[in-house]
Amino acid sequence: MSPQSFQPPRRILMGPGPSDVHPRVLAAMARPTIGHLDPAFVTLMDEIKDLLRYAFRTQNELTIPLSGPGSAGMECCFVNLVEPGDTVVVCVNGVFGGRMKENVERCGARAVIVEDAWGQGVNPAKVEAALAANPGAKALAFVHAETSTGARSDAETLCRLARGAGALAIVDAVTSLGGIPLEVDRWGADAVYSGTQKCLSCPPGLSPITFGARAVAALKGRRTKVQSWFLDLSLVMAYWEGPKGGGRSYHHTAPVNALYGLHEALVMLREEGLEVAWARHAKTHGALVAGLEAMGLKMKVDAAVRLPELNAVEIPAGIDEAALRRKLLEVHGLEIGAGLGGWAGKVWRIGLMGQSATADHILKCLDALESGLLDAGAKVNAGKAQAAARSALSA
Ligand SMILES: *Cc1c(COP(=O)(O)O)cnc(C)c1O
Fold it and tell me: Using CA of residue 374, residue 341, residue 117, residue 102, what is the dihedral sign?
C-alpha cells in the first residue's frame, strides 16, 4: 500500500499549545509560494514587523519573526547577548526558567539562580537581592507566563529591577504575547521572545522577537562572535532589514508560507484589538474556573498569579489521568495537557490560548471533563458546571 495524503483528525486544542488555528490563517498559508526576496514578499515582511510591534507594544526597530519555534527565540536572546564569562541572574519557577539556565551555561556564562516554587510567580525581593549580590551581571532572565504551571510573574517590576542594576531584561513572552498585557516599551524589557502557536493561534514554527536599544548596543559591543551562525542577529538582519538604503540579502530561505499565516493571524489580532483579546482571555478564564469549581475541582495556582491562558487543575484522587485525557481525545476530539515534571500526574493543564479562548471551547471542555470524570467514578457535582460558566460569561 502506498502512503495516502495525510488527513489530520478534527481536534479542539485546549492544551499548552498549539492552540486552534483559524481557517483564515490556514487559508493564507495555502496561497502560492513566492520567492523570499520577491518585492511583494518584502512588503509582507515589513507589514509583519509593524504588526509585531503592535502586538509587543514597542517601537523597537529590531522586531522580527525568527524561523524557528519559541525555543529558537529563547536561544537567540542568549547567544546574541551573553558572552563567555558573563553572569546572568536566571529566575526558575518552572520548566522554562530551567531551560534559560541551560542556555546561559551553554554560552559559557555563569547562571545565578533565583528559585521560586512551582505555581508561584518570581519573587522580586529575591531578584533584587541576587542583582545586588552580583554587581555587573549582564542580564536578568525570567519567564513572564510559565506554561508549565500557569503562574504569572510581575514582568514590569522585574524589568525595573534589571534596569536599576544595569542589567538587560531578557523576557520569555511565549505564552503571554496576545493573551495578557505585555508592554515591552513601557516596562523597558530589553530582549523579548515569543512563539506563534500559543495566544497568536498560528501553527508552531516561528518565534517573534524584539530587541530594544540597550540590547542592540550589547550586541554591537560584543567581544566575541555569536556562537550560532544561524541565530546571529547581525546576519539575520541583513535579510529582514538590509543595509541602510541597500537591498536585502540572502541569509537563509524564510519559511514563506508560514509567514503568510503569521501575517493573517496578526491582521486578525489587529482587527479584534489587542486589549479586546486580553479581555477575552480573562473572561473565558473566569468562566472556565467558575465551571471547574462548581464541579468541585480545585485550581492549583493562587488566583492572584493565575494566567488566564493556562489553567492548572488538580486531578481528583484515584483518577487515571492519562486514561481520561485519552478518552477526551478519542470521544470528544478534545486535547488538554498533562502536568510536567513534579506536577506530572497531579494536574491537567487546560489552555485557553488565542482562538481556543472562546465560550464554546470552555463549555465543551467542561461537558467532556464532567462526563469523563463521572464515568471514571470521581465524586464531582454533576450538572452544575455549565450554569456556573454561563453565568460568569454573561456577567
Ligand atoms: C512553549 C514555550 C516555549 C517553547 O516554545 P516552542 O515553540 O515549543 O519551542 C518557551 N517558553 C514558554 C514559556 C513556552 O510556553
Answer: negative
CA of 24 to the centre of ligand 1 (A): 24
- pLDDT at position 246, please? 62
| Residues 351 and 13 sit within 8 Å (Cβ to Cβ) | yes
Phi, psi angle pair for 361, to nearest 5°: -60, -50
3-state secondary structure of 314: strand
Angle formed by the axes of helices 274-295 and 256-272, nearest 10°: 80
Identify the residue whose cell numbers are 473565558: 284
CA distances from 368 to 14, 77, 159, 326 (A): 12, 40, 41, 12
326-340 pLDDT, tens digit per residue, is 999 999 999 999 999
| CA separation for the pair 324, 337 (Å, rounded) | 11
Closest ligand 1 atom, CA of 74? 10
Ligand 1 atom nearest 146 alpha carbon: 13
H helix intervals, 321-381: 321-332, 359-375
CATH architecture, domain 23-271: 3-Layer(aba) Sandwich (3.40)
What is the dihedral sign for C-alpha 123, 126, 131, 134? negative
Ligand 1 neighbour 92 (Cβ under 6 A): no
pTM of this structure: 0.97
Hey, what's the cell of 173?
513572552
Tell me which residue of 26, 56, 51 sits closest to 257, measured CA to CA.
26
Say if CB 270 and CB 314 are below 8 A apart.
no
Q: Which is nearest to 147 in space by CA: 349, 4, 326?
A: 349
Mean pLDDT by 10 residues, the chain (395 residues): 94 98 98 95 96 98 97 98 98 98 98 98 98 98 98 98 98 98 98 98 98 97 96 91 73 96 98 98 98 98 98 96 97 98 96 98 98 96 98 95
Cα 10 to ligand 1 centroid, rounded to whole Å: 24
Domain parsing of the chain, residue ranges: 23-271, 274-394
Superfamily of domain 274-394: Aspartate Aminotransferase, domain 1 (3.90.1150.10)
| Residue 203 CB–ligand 1 contact under 6 Å | no
